[in-house]
Each structure stands twice: as structure tokens, then as C-alpha cells.
What we know:
The chain has 167 residues and is mostly beta strands. The protein has one helix at residues 81-85; strands at 2-7, 10-20, 23-28, 31-39, 44-49, 52-61, 64-69, 72-80, 99-102, 107-112, 119-120, 125-131, 134-139, 144-149, 156-157, 162-166.
Amino acid sequence: MAFIAKLGGQTSVVRITETEKSVYKVVVDGHEFMVDGRRTGRNNYSLLIDNRSFEVDVDTTEDEYRVLLDGRTYRINMSDERQVRVGGRQSGIEVSGRQEVKIPMPGKVVAVLVNEGDTVDKGQGLVIVEAMKMENEVRAPSDGEVKEIRVKAGESVESGQVLAIVE
């Protein structure tokens, strides 16, 4: 599963894959860590990260994680990468640069709301896709210019397919 994490002024892409029970491969901006994590209390975890042991206390509200580690508290905003990419809840996370706007589920394109070259605002609708008998408006993840539209009305799309590029 992929997340967009914001700690202070730094935004990172975090990918987490469970490789075996309670053992995870965590990739943060391309740097890979093996994490053996065990819950030791309601909000407490024992983590073994690349042969180093950590005891952490984690408290969550919405998409914010307050992590107590070695007497210091870190506030981390986390959002599912798919939600950020389709313009869903942002949790104060800003994305910039070239963005591939993808659809998280298969469906059928009902309408394309913008054209290549259009300037769009963050959250503005780009494409409407019908999936599971519901129309879903896929939104711009950031302010920018529509560089490419890769779908047409009436076209079927697969999960993860790039619909548009906004830069």
C-alpha cells in the first residue's frame, strides 16, 4: 500500500508491503527498510528496523499520526496515495510537479471535463468515471496545466490506469 506522508515541511512517498506475518518492507522515497513490528499495548509498538530496536507510542486522529519516540513527538500527516492522486482528502498535503492522475478502480469514462492545455485548480474535476453504478469525479491533485488527456468518453478504464497528466 502506498501513502503520501508529510512531516514538517517534507513530503515523502511511503510504500508498505507485508512480506510475512508482522514483517514489512517499507520504502520511503526509494530507501528500503525491513521492519519487524509488534503491538505491545493499545498504542504501543516494538519495532525492529534494520536490526535496531525502537519502542514507539502512536496516537491517531483522522490522517494525523502523533508518534512518540525517544521522548520526542512527531506529527505525521498520512494519506492514501490513491486518494491524493484523484483529488480526495488531502490532509494538508500538497503535491507538485508532474502528476499522473489515475483511477483506483475499473470503470467507464462518462465525460472528460477538460482539454489538453487547460489550466486547472487543485480539486477541479478532470474526468467522470462510472464504477460500480456510481459516477466518480476524478479531480486535479494540484494547480497546474493539463499536459495530456489519455482517455475519451465511452472508453473502459482499468484500475490504476493513467487518465491525465497535470503539471
